[in-house]
Amino acid sequence: MPEKKVSDSASHISRVMMPTDANIAGNVFGGTILKMVDEVSGLVALRHCNSNVVTASIEHMDFLYPVHVGDLLSLDAKLTYVGNSSMEVFVSVTAENLMTGERQHAGDSIVTLVSLDRDGHPKPAPRLILTTDEERRLYAEGEKRRNLRIERAKERKKTG
């Protein structure tokens, strides 16, 4: 299985936020943003492993700036860590007011996905080629988060 660079699967999606995406005050629902985060992270994982993928966890979602009806919501996503079958994707969310051109960093998220074979079982994902110091740093941080997720899963099994 060939190794792949972070840039090979990095993805971007954008969509104008409509009234159906928001509450009566015109603020976009967090769930709408989360759905887009899940979509773009899934796209990154799918491009990396060229197989079906499922979301295993959302490590966090930080909402940093309100998104409004009429804003262009843009999400940039890239792999930060690849384990055996799991992949960690970092997603950055930007809101752009299309009338003023003002852009705000609206949020960040880390999503873990798992590569699946045709029978729905975890399958190995291609190794990640790290080409920059930032990629190596993000990979090391991702590995630490993976180890913490494994420890939390062990604790959940103990406590039933």
UniProtKB/TrEMBL annotation:
SUPFAM superfamilies the UniProt entry points to: Thioesterase/thiol ester dehydrase-isomerase
Gene Ontology terms: cellular component: cytoplasm
GO molecular function, one term: long-chain fatty acyl-CoA hydrolase activity
PROSITE patterns in alphabetical order: HOTDOG_ACOT
Coiled coil: none
One protein family per Pfam: 4HBT
Keywords: Hydrolase
CDD domains reported in the protein's UniProt record: BFIT_BACH
Biological process terms in GO annotation: acyl-CoA metabolic process
Domain HotDog ACOT-type, chain residue ranges per copy: 7-119
Superkingdom of this protein's organism: Archaea
Keyword Hydrolase annotated: yes
Gene3D superfamilies, alphabetized: Hotdog Thioesterase
Protein name according to UniProt: Acyl-CoA thioesterase
Organism the protein comes from: Candidatus Sysuiplasma superficiale
Lineage start: Archaea, Methanobacteriati, Thermoplasmatota, Thermoplasmata, Candidatus Sysuiplasmatales
